[in-house]
Write a structure and sequence with these properties.
With 406 residues, the protein is an all-beta fold. It is built from no helices and 35 strands.
């Protein structure tokens, strides 16, 4: 296995459902409406600008990539364009599995150890196609990977994870990006909360409720749901008990919030270390009740340590691990759950049964671009109609089991 060494993110232009043209990504406009569910799009490598060596994130895994909207109006003083914020991650791993997990003392699998965990902050300017390393003011979070992050307005909220010293604290750290100079803050939250954990998910639902779900507390996988109302002060975590049949305890799933407030929990690894193929929706009713519901459609493959992000009503899923050093097969490494149509699609068609085998460059109808997304522990973010992927682990041809920065 190796840490992916591509300097630029992969990108797809969602509405066109084809590889974006060369040069900086551009947003599609005035495209004809699609008829029926569209196949999953392909990805290409973006050759981004890195003026100084330290500006580029370099090879890493277990990091987060968060989309932050522009600040102000273009052409006015203080305007800051749309950005992707990359935080933390591990720059090297040592062990014997693609599904790299923390050491036994932290509730993970034997033989794997995080190395080179960072607290670096890198910014990708979407319009300029340029990476810059940020040096925010304030007290930085400790180095960590397998943490959770999400955007709240022009801020990035970070919680949990695991670093060289073990589990990170349960504190909420906020990176304020409203000014030209970014600044770290530690949020004061009253009462009990999710506690220290890693491999969990976090998302902002309905532009108001910050949800933290699942993960591993160092002892076992979890499926508890915690909510923080960002519109009510003092801030306070509240444990939620959703109705309906929900997912099993799991870690390394993904949580993505649709614009109308629906959260979708996809995949993950259960308590027996088996990958999950299911997807569950979590919604808040007007009377305050939360409810789980299983998503329709046939998933192409179980997976964990994958990435997923919404563009409109389409959830774009990429990569993932199966366990035992195996990655999700090429044929299923790119998939879309069309929540409007209630179906899963891969690069070829609507999925009616789980996919097996792989599409290779030597097979009829195969696509070399699918190898780009055959990875795990990467991160993804969406900006407008564009989906970006950065980093992660890929299979190496050697079998020495050592993962390191290339």
């Amino acid at each position: 296995m190796e840490v992916d060494s591509n300097a630029g993110p992969e990108v797809v232009q969602e509405e066109a459902a084809v590889a974006a043209p060369p040069g900086p990504p551009v947003q599609a406009a005035n495209l004809p409406p699609a008829v029926g569910p569209r196949a999953a799009p392909s990805y290409r490598v973006v050759n981004s600008i890195i003026e100084n060596k330290d500006d580029g994130p370099g090879p890493r895994c277990g990091h987060t990539l968060t989309a932050v909207a522009s600040v102000g109006s273009e052409g006015t003083p203080g305007y800051i364009g749309p950005r992707l914020i990359l935080f933390g991650g591990a720059t090297a791993l040592e062990g014997n599995s693609a599904a790299a997990t923390p050491p036994p003392s932290s509730g993970g699998s034997a033989g794997i150890r995080l190395a080179g965990a960072t607290a670096d902050v890198h910014c990708y300017d979407v319009l300029a196609n340029k990476w810059t390393r940020l040096h925010p003011l304030g007290e930085s979070p400790s180095p960590r990977a397998a943490h959770a992050a999400t955007a709240v307005g022009s801020m990035v909220v970070i919680q949990g994870g695991i670093g060289p010293a073990g589990l990170s604290s349960e504190d909420l750290h906020v990176l304020d990006l409203t000014q030209q100079k970014a600044r770290w803050h530690r949020v004061v939250v009253h009462g009990p909360g999710p506690g220290s954990r890693y491999g969990h998910v976090m998302a902002l639902v309905g532009q108001r409720f910050l949800l933290a779900i699942g993960g591993n507390d160092g002892k076992r996988p979890l499926i508890d749901v915690w909510a923080l109302d960002t519109a009510a002060k003092p801030y306070e975590w509240r444990k939620v008990e959703p109705e309906g049949d929900g997912p099993p305890p799991c870690m390394y799933a993904t949580a993505s919030a649709r614009s109308d407030g629906l959260l979708l929990l996809c995949g993950g690894r259960d308590a027996s270390s088996a990958p999950l193929a299911s997807a569950y929706g979590l919604a808040k009713h007007r009377d305050g009740r939360w409810e789980w519901a299983i998503a329709p459609g046939v998933s192409p493959s179980p997976r964990y340590q994958h990435a997923a992000v919404f563009v409109n009503a389409r959830l774009h899923v990429s990569g993932g691990a199966l366990g035992g050093g195996r990655m999700v097969e090429d044929a299923s490494s790119v998939a879309v759950l069309d929540t409007a149509a209630g179906v899963w699609c891969d690069r070829k068609s609507v999925i009616t049964s789980p996919r097996t085998g792989r599409y290779s460059v030597d097979a009829a109808g195969g696509e070399a671009s699918l190898e780009l997304t055959r990875r795990c522990r990467h991160a993804a973010a969406a900006m407008g109609d564009l989906v970006f992927i950065y980093g992660g682990l890929r299979e190496a041809r050697s079998s020495d089991g050592v993962l390191q920065k290339q």
